[in-house]
Design brief:
The chain has 347 residues and is mainly alpha-helical. Helix content is 76%, strand content 1%. The protein has a two-stranded antiparallel ribbon with strand order 1-2. The longest helix has 30 residues.
Length: 347
């Protein structure tokens, strides 16, 4: 059941928003160019970060801290850092994908220009480090552990993004389901679930065993999250997604549904799907046809089945943590509800 996690999100969201509000940084100078710096660099990033989403990732830092026996407040710097990394990733991702909308508004690069948007994304990455380094509640040892995990999270994300973009650039249609799962584990599962949970545990002073266990929960849960995301892009609520609906087809994304279908379609149908994916089409009838072919190849059914299997894996990992006395039963139940939420959400 997703309801307990949805309630947890609602209860912890004010803490995250309260920590994000003062996280904006100011220009290093007070000279006459300070106003330009705010307009060209600081204000665009602040507006983008403030526009927010569900704030799932930063809230998971708080859940990791509480699951490890600490307080939610002990992980607030990590929560802000994760949200700033999310801002950087999305700003840069929109440029790479030539996106139109983000959170219902024009992408930042379309408002500010590509150069300034790249710079704002880079500032977000600098702020990730500054926020952690400035946290007086973290002693030197925990600060080092947190920064090491932040670096690992960022490296995983960059590797996944390189594969995602490179396969499209090189028109690679030999990508296998296993290749896709490696890519999305790196690009999404780490920074969406596994690293936030782990960061929270480390910030709260939790044991390595608990942090490792939360990572084992987070990786399959993160895979389920992304597979559900892929499904929603193909067969979700078109009105809720606006211009982003079926954008994965337009962009020729090698999603699990696509690579599975390509592995199971033959002849003309496979060739037709490849042609549609390579055409950058936005025509509604052609997008419908692409989804029809993906379904014929079993891609949609396989995604639904595998997402649920990953949720089961995450739940089993949470059960094991509670059984070993590393987390409470209450924390286990929240983690299980989190995994359910990832496949039951509709947006």
């Amino acid at each position: 059941m997703a309801a307990p996690f949805v309630d947890y999100l609602a209860r912890r969201l004010p803490l995250v928003e309260g920590a994000l509000a003062p996280s904006a940084s100011a220009p290093l100078t007070g000279s006459s160019v300070a106003g330009d710096l705010r307009g060209y660099l600081y204000d665009p990033l602040d507006r983008f970060t403030a526009s927010g989403g569900k704030r799932v990732r930063p809230v998971l830092c708080l859940l990791g801290a509480e699951a490890a026996g600490g307080t939610a407040e002990s992980a607030l710097a990590c929560a802000v850092a994760v949200e700033l990394f999310q801002s950087a990733a999305l700003i840069h991702d929109d440029i790479a994908d030539e996106g139109e909308l983000r959170r219902g508004e024009p992408c930042l690069y379309r408002v500010e220009g590509t150069g300034l948007a790249i710079n704002a994304g880079d500032l977000a990455l600098v702020r990730v480090l500054e926020v952690v380094l400035a946290d007086e509640g973290l002693d030197a040892e925990r600060k080092a552990l947190v920064l090491d995990e932040v670096a690992r999270m960022e490296r995983h994300t960059l590797e996944g993004q390189a594969l995602d973009l490179g396969w499209v650039r090189d028109a690679r249609w030999d990508v296998t389901p296993d290749d896709y799962l490696y890519m999305v584990r790196s690009k999404t599962a780490w920074y969406t679930v596994a690293s936030p949970l782990r960061l929270g545990a480390l910030a709260a002073g939790g044991s390595r065993e608990t942090a490792d266990g939360l990572e084992r929960v987070g990786l399959p849960a993160g895979l389920a999250f992304q597979i559900q995301d892929d499904l929603l892009n193909l067969v979700g609520d078109a009105a809720a997604q606006g211009k982003d609906f079926r954008s994965d087809i337009t962009e020729g994304k090698r999603t699990l549904a696509v690579v599975w279908a390509l592995a199971h379609l033959e002849g003309e149908k496979r060739d037709e799907l490849v042609a549609l994916l390579g055409s950058r089409t936005t025509d509604a009838s052609e997008l419908d046809r692409a989804v029809e072919l993906i379904e014929l190849g079993g891609g949609l059914a396989h995604c639904r089945e595998l997402a649920r299997a990953y949720v089961d894996e995450a739940r089993q990992a949470a059960d094991a943590l509670a059984r070993d006395g590393l987390i409470t039963v209450e924390a286990r139940d929240l983690l299980c509800s989190m995994a359910d939420f990832f496949v039951e959400r509709v947006s």
